Amino acid sequence: MIAQWQNQIAARARQADDSARTRLGVISAYDPAQFAVKVRIEPGKVETGWIPLGSPWVGNGWGAFFAPALGETVEVEFQEGSVDAGMASMRFFNDVDRPLSVPAGEGWLVHQSGSALKFHGDGRVEVIAAADLSVAVAGNLSATVSGAATLKASSVKVDAPNSEFTGNVTIGGALSQGGGQGGNATFGGSVTASGDVRGGGISLARHVHPDAHGGTTGGPQ
What we know:
The protein is mainly beta. Helices cover 6% and strands 22% of the residues.
């Protein structure tokens, strides 16, 4: 089949100007280990052998990897017009694989799962994770926000031996120090409470002391 395809391309090249022309085809197989594809050339449905799939950014074990789906329309080019040196380059939307309506000047990376990275025309950057989102940082992580930052979740856990807040902290709900298991709390200034404070089961607002003359003293004032 591969020889048949090469013969057909070579014959067309001889009829033209002795060089293989750029052709369109459909991806019929994909090898992720080699980042290579087989393509059914249109017309005729003749399948190529394994040919490299182009990428805008490549290196030894790194680069941009946009794995193809079977059935995608792809452009096949031939180095120096040689039928033995084919390569798959650009892929195209078509009547089956329809594009999204992206505004002029914007850039979107959208996965079939719905996850996306969108660069909007007004400068906003939108990140959408259809499932979990994981970030691994080998060094330090620094985030600077000129406006307000809001984190909304069913629960938040900060797993660190030390946490530091340089400004005021407002807590809208209950505060359980030590996770209910005990621990020490140190305050460098005054502590003000509109309600009662209890220590060891004893009320600060309503506790009494034994009176040297018998009985107990009144509550604190």
